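re: the backbone from monday

yeah here it is again, tokenized this time
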């Protein structure tokens, strides 16, 4: 295969900080696979076990606790993507909306989450950290992103922060497909999903498409956001990744918990997340 474009080079360490099992595959699996193929070491820190999600019926696993099932799926996917290590940070899954359970990620003050993430980053000594940009509207993604910014700022060495982003042009096509498929779903008015294309850097990850597809398929309990898409759109989602290198002063993180009432958009990453 051709050498993939990568955000982490041979010998570098990348820590991927995500909120739920499947974020690493549905969200940024190609960036991980490209980095490990290039020789970078990768650790995934996953804040929750995704236990607030829905699940697809499966007679083999229906009796498993969803969090355990999703942790197993995460580990399977991570192995395919070439990840060295997976760690769960033991926060509760906040869910996309609704009341927050004590101990859930969004119920935990950002400063506390930042301290926990910062402690692990200080030990792992990454050159680059990768997280989702939160432009899918999921409150867990946004809360963790903001905590990560604070955590990296607390480190005594420079670390690149890369956001894995959703391109607004692709998201509008995605929303059109989903609206046609589910016309009664009121909250698919998603004009603000994704980030404007001209803010993003495109990364050709077509060389690792096969690994990305295999990693996505590990998450059997979840409906991927790509499965209802026509083949051409699916391929465009999965062969070009969009990133932004976060500049710390560009959008100062807040120390306030994410307001769950401000996120009313439909989840991009499957019906369950
Ligand atoms: Zn997620």
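seq for it, each position gets an aa:
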């Amino acid at each position: 295969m051709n050498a993939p474009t990568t955000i982490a080079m041979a010998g570098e360490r990348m820590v991927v900080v995500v909120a739920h099992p499947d974020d690493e595959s549905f969200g940024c699996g190609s960036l991980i696979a490209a980095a490990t193929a290039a020789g970078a070491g990768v650790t995934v820190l996953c804040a929750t076990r995704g236990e607030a999600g829905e699940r697809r019926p499966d007679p083999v696993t229906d009796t498993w606790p969803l969090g355990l099932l999703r942790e197993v799926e995460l580990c399977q996917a991570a192995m395919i993507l070439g990840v060295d290590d997976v760690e769960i940070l033991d926060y509760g899954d906040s869910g996309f909306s609704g009341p927050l359970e004590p101990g859930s990620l969004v119920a935990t003050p950002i400063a506390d989450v930042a301290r926990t993430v910062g402690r692990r980053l200080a030990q792992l000594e990454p050159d680059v950290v990768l997280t989702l940009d939160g432009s899918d509207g999921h409150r867990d993604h946004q809360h963790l992103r903001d905590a990560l910014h604070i955590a990296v700022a607390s480190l005594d060495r420079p670390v690149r922060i890369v956001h894995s982003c959703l391109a607004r042009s692709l998201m509008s096509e995605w929303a059109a497909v989903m609206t046609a498929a589910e016309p009664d779903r009121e909250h698919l008015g998603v004009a603000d999903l994704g980030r404007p294309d001209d803010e993003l850097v495109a990364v050709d990850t077509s060389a690792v498409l096969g690994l990305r597809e295999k990693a996505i398929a590990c998450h059997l309990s979840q409906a991927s956001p790509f499965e209802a898409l026509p083949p051409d759109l699916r391929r465009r989602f999965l062969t070009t990744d969009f990133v932004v290198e976060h500049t710390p002063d560009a959008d100062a993180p807040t120390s306030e918990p994410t307001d769950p009432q401000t996120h009313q958009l439909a989840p991009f990453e499957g019906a369950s997340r």
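The beta strands are 13-18, 41-48, 85-91, 128-132, 160-165, 201-204, 240-245. The pocket of zinc ion is lined by residues 19-20, 23, 138, 140-141, 269, 273 (CB under 6 Å).
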